[in-house]
Amino acid sequence: MLTALRRLRVWQNDHAIAAVEFGLLAPMLVLGLVLMLDVGFAIGQRMELDRNVRAGVQATMSNINDLTAVRDVVLSTADAPDELTVTVNRTCSCAGAAAPCTTWCAGGEPPSVFVNISAVQDYEGVMLPPITLDSDTYVQLR
Asked: Rounded to whole angstroms, how far apart are CA atoms 62 and 14?
């Protein structure tokens, strides 16, 4: 009988140790899970931002030359357009150097025309500090 009680006491101590170890590790596991979710949501938000900018690129390639219309396309594809800052501008270059879009390059060639599309959004996570997500690209029209 005494041996059975000793075995029972040892068995209870092993479970108590496991409970204490789990109690010590559980907060770190929960924090790790929350951090992973936070990073995942930030990555998902950045992918959404890239998708919005690509919609503007498609609009530009569909021969929409009005920069305001391209900006509106980017904003219309966003889930939260009021949280987005979109910039669309046109630049020109001759032989890789910046040039005005109204004059011809040396040699009588027209300048290369680019439409630059950029979107910026702030992200505030649960554990991550506030970060600024940005996506930008350009389209060469000529």
From this structure: 70
* HEC string for the chain: CHHHHHHHHHHHHHHHHHHHHHHHHHHHHHHHHHHHHHHHHHHHHHHHHHHHHHHHHHHHHCCCCCHHHHHHHHHHCCCCHHHEEEEEEEEEEECCEEECCCCCCCCCCCCEEEEEEEEEEEECCCCCCCEEEEEEEEEECC
User: CA-CA distance, 10 to 2, in Å (whole number)?
Assistant: 13
Model confidence over 92-121: pLDDT tens digits? 998 888 888 888 888 888 898 899 999 999
pLDDT digit string, tens, across residues 46-89: 999 999 999 999 998 888 888 999 999 999 998 888 889 999 99
Whose structure tokens read 């690129």?
A: 57
CA–CA dist 57, 79 (Å, integer): 18
Structure tokens, 134: 């940005």
**In angstroms, rounded to a whole number, what is the distance separating the alpha carbons of residues 131 and 142?**
36
